Amino acid sequence: MREDSDVFLMGEDIAEMGGSMGVTQGLLDEFGPERVRNTPISEAGIVGAGIGAAMQGMRPVVEIMYEDFLTLSAEQIVNQAAKHRYMSGGQLKVPLTIRTQGGAGWSPGAQHAQQLEAWFVHIPGLKVVFPSTPTDVRGLLWTAIHDDNPVLVFEHRLLYPVKEEVPDELEPIPFGQARTVREGEDVTVIATGPMVHRSVEAAVEAEKNGVSVEIVDPRSLQPLDEEALVASVKKTNRCVVTHEAVTRMGFGAEVASVIQYQAFDWLDAPIERVGAKFAPLAFAPVMEQFIVPNSEDVLAAIYRTVGRDGN
Amino acid sequence: MAQVVPAERDLRRVIGDGDAVPDGEVEGLTEHDLLELHRSLVLLRTYDERSVVYHRQGRIGTYAIFWNHEAMQAGSVYALEDEDWIFPSYRESAIGLLRGMPARTILQWWRGHPSGWWNPADYNVASICVPIATHVPHAAGLAWGKKLRGETAVAIAYFGDGATSEGSFHEGANFAAVTGAPVVLFCNNNQWAISTPLSAQTRADALVDKAVGYGIPGIRVDGGDVLAVYEATREAVARARTGGGPTLIEAVTYRAAPHATADDPSAYIDPERVEEERKNECVGRYERYLRRLGVLDEAAAEQVRAEAAELMRTGIAEAEAEPPADVALVFEHAHVDPLPAFEDDLRELRGG
Q1: Domain boundary among A131, A159, A187
Q2: A18 and B268 in contact by Cβ < 8 A?
Q3: CATH number attached to the domain at B3-321
Q4: Roughly how many angstroms between the first and final C-alpha of chain A, as a whole number?
Q5: Which of A247, A278, A304 to substitute to test the interface with B, most B CBs within 10 Å?
Q6: Are residues A20 and A147 in the same domain?
Q7: ipTM of this model?
Q8: Which one from A12, A63, A84, A112 is the annotated catalytic residue?
Q9: What stretch(es) of chain B map to CATH 3.40.50.970?
Q10: Percent of chain A residues topping a pLDDT of 70
Q11: Which of B109, B196, B322, B331 to probe the A interface (max A CBs under 10 A)?
Q12: Which structural domain, as residue segments, surrounds residue A288?
């Protein structure tokens, strides 16, 4: 925003309050109410107006307070933002960034915690990223804002407290580049968002049992760094795919398909998938815990691929 | 710091201020009715205040406070028949109390316990939709269905000022208007949508003006005046029941408490204004009115409060005593006929 006056923010409660999760705190003071715009409660209006502003050269960053409310703006995202370039014969650009957050683990219930990234990776015309660390958020958000396509940036509620040293200089992270979180020899875990952190916990545990785990975070889901994922599996010969979204019909199914097609002869075990149970997210903590995948679920899947029961 | 002064335009009031503004009365209301309304107000107030404490004790998660919204809920529900359907937003989470729903049930809803999932048809109180305004078309559709089936029931949908910015509000209101659905669209305009003031939500002089665009009647009423709310809703319900279609009611009040327990309004709200509004909160205002009428004395008021407190104590004890939920319900409740896709997960759950 300091470098480009075309960049501005729009969303519900993002100004004085700094967003429901505090992500935009302090920006109103620095950039003023014209560039940090509180909007009416109108998710379709927010994205629609963002598209309009983007069409004439602005670079809006809009916030949808909860990922679940993307459904209220789905028409604008799926039928409009994703299609305008195509339907203008490549003449129109929609450099729009849509930030949103979601995720379970704090008992927000069925309409406040879903992980819906799989809906949007399925739509030609959109790009989708899901950072899991502060460095990745910064680098990917930069790229999203500078990208000439509509980009969805998924943030996970439980990852906001994650702290790490970030480089003084901002380093843009190109889309379609996976990050190897941890190197290992026996099995590759391909993980997104909070599952990256849960997989690291599982990997530490597995190592005590003599199983060496490599973890790869695709970071950008669309485009997807197939090459890096396949290369890792060709090295380890085993693969676990994990995300917090529902397992069935999920993004992990696409990843598993890519792996089996491109690394079929290298695989020593069926590809394991770890995600949420096929159930609406529960408000009750005990039920939510059961539905949402944790590090033990990843660990169990790791052991299954190497033919051990963990004992 | 944004500030909104409630426009007085067309604001219906019954309760005076005990000084320059004289008290009015509502035709047809008996002393019994007046005291029943008081009981409803105290019940809601007690539920709300106890819930905030319950939240602070860590017994429930985030809770949407409705302090100073009681007059809108109690007044409007009193104008309904039992057959009429209520579509609450999260701000009306405890409105079922006025339909005989046990406190335990609502507390369990906030605790995330499956026994908090009441059957809407048991109370004619719909499940709460958390996304804003998405229930307005539901109310319009239910009401239209009642009309098609030749039934006499009407529906009422509650939503806030911010909800009028949503597409679902527009589509629901317009649908109700063109179908002549027997529905009351009840806007509790508390002038804040979390941190967003009404002035940033609309340029309309008054939200009730939106009724003109839909070609339906609109009524603007003081939302802190339980009698004015009752009278306005009674009028709207009568019109709906006799084939006159929907009415938009704008009840004007002020959110004198945080949006929810997770909210800290100090970043955006004027604390002096809140203090001012709290002095004129709706329950005390009605009690002073009843005292001026000579209908309520302190002993009677105290008894009503004691009964409400007891009801909450019982509700909390019952909720706490219930065994934890059976986790398998997450599958059993998701579809009428559980999908084969659940079988692996169920087996895992049962340790098979």
Answers
A1: A159
A2: no
A3: 3.40.50.970
A4: 53
A5: A278
A6: yes
A7: 0.78
A8: A112
A9: 3-321
A10: 99
A11: B196
A12: 179-306
